[in-house]
Amino acid sequence: MRRSALVTMLLLAAAIRASAQGTIDPGMSRAQVISKLGKPSSERSSGTQTFLYYKNGQEKKMGMNDMVALDSDRVIDAVFRAADRKYSGKSSSPAPISAEAAIRKGGGTPRAAPMKMPAKMPAKMPAQSPTKVPAKAAQVAPTVAPKAAPKAAPVPDTKKSTPAPTKKP
Questions:
Q1: Is residue 35's pLDDT more than 90?
Q2: SS3 of residue 29 by DSSP
Q3: Which of 66, 83, 159, 166 lies at a CB distance of 3.0 to 4.6 Å from 54, suitable for a disulfide?
Q4: Under 8 Å CB-to-CB from 54, ≥6 apart: which residues?
Q5: Nearest C-alpha neighbor of 23 from the set 63, 75, 59, 73
Q6: Does 30 score more than 60 pLDDT?
Q7: Looking at the whole model, is its pTM more than 0.70?
């Protein structure tokens, strides 16, 4: 029993140490961040601000890398999506929410189920009603006149028919 308690304590200590390795605190220097997270995949600077970007393995899903913002070589913000990274300060990024929560808050509607095609298509499709052309659109002349369709040769009538009676005036 003592052995299992010792193993549990060692595992717990290792988990705390691993968690602390990925925790960034406000005010840390760039060197301290790199000692905890490693070399960033990219880095951008503007004036006194520096942004360190880290791959998180969820770039396609989340649309972004993890980011640590520094001002005058001190951490001022961090946005992490990787589960093994934490920021102990208040991040400027809102906490991620589920799709269902976003829908409840008015962020859209759930995806509709795919349409099922009928097993057998109807023999005759219903006719669509003609659409009305607005008066303004009817007045606009086309920029290119359509070509007249070639006239088809008359088709001889193979049936014998009696001529229609003519009216006399």
A1: yes
A2: coil
A3: 66
A4: 37, 38, 40, 41, 65, 66, 67, 68, 82, 85
A5: 75
A6: yes
A7: no
Strands (E) in the chain, as ranges, are 23-24, 42-46, 49-54, 66-71, 74-79, 86-87
Helices (H), 1-96: 2-21, 30-37, 59-62
Q: Which residue has the higher pLDDT, 113 or 16?
A: 113
pLDDT at 53 over 70: yes
Q: State how far Cα 3 lies from the chain centre.
A: 51
List the Cα angle 90/92/95 in 5-degree steps: 85
Using a CB cutoff of 8 Å and minimum separation of 24, what contacts does 157-165 make? none
Query: Among positive and negative, which fits the CA dihedral 98, 104, 108, 113?
Result: positive
| Rounded Cα gap, residues 115 and 100, in angstroms | 22
Q: Is the pLDDT of residue 63 over 60?
A: yes
**CA–CA dist 88, 77 (Å, integer):** 10
